[in-house]
Write a structure and sequence with these properties.
With 139 residues, the chain is α+β, with helices and mostly antiparallel strands. It has one domain: tt1808, chain A (Alpha-Beta Complex), CATH 3.90.1570. The protein has two helices and eight strands, in the order H-E-E-E-H-E-E-E-E-E. The strands form two sheets. The protein has a six-stranded mixed beta sheet with strand order 1-2-3-4-5-6, with helices on both faces. The protein is globular, with a radius of gyration of 16 Å. The relative contact order is 0.14.
């Protein structure tokens, strides 16, 4: 007997995907069209392609130095604590200079920097890109 059951992968809710879409589109324009940022944005890309590794929602990669520069994780209230810990761990384990978490329920950003820890003064400002990531969301 043929089983015609279709199994779908569980993915993130629409608000989560909406934020990733906006960030990817606008970061892509800044990189591909306007050449205003030095790092190429990738969605859901393994942080280490040489082995099975975590995939942040957005990874900004320096093609010249072949290094990961920025990771962004998008979350809601429910997963916030877990995603903050995930970003801290990825920054430390993989030597990523800047890591961000955006909470779409509150509109707040969290930032963690390699060697410096949490940045509560400018949580959405990327020192590597020289601009505020929150401006990409048009809220």
């Amino acid at each position: 007997m043929i089983d015609n059951t279709v199994y779908l992968q569980i993915t993130a809710p629409k608000p989560h995907q909406r934020i990733i879409g906006k960030l990817m589109m606008r970061l892509g324009i800044l990189y591909y069209d306007e050449n205003k940022i030095p790092f190429e944005p990738f969605p859901e890309t393994m942080i280490d392609e040489n082995q099975t590794s975590p995939t942040p929602d957005i990874l900004l990669y320096d093609n010249e130095t072949k290094t990961n520069q920025i990771i962004i994780e998008v979350t809601g209230n429910t997963g916030l604590r877990k995603d903050i810990e995930k970003v801290k761990q990825l920054v430390e384990d993989y030597g990523v200079p800047e890591g961000f978490v955006y909470n779409y329920n509150t509109g707040k950003w969290y930032k963690y920097q390699l060697g410096k820890g949490e940045d509560i003064d400018t949580p959405s400002f990327s020192h590597l890109l020289h601009f505020d990531l929150d401006k990409l969301l048009d809220r």
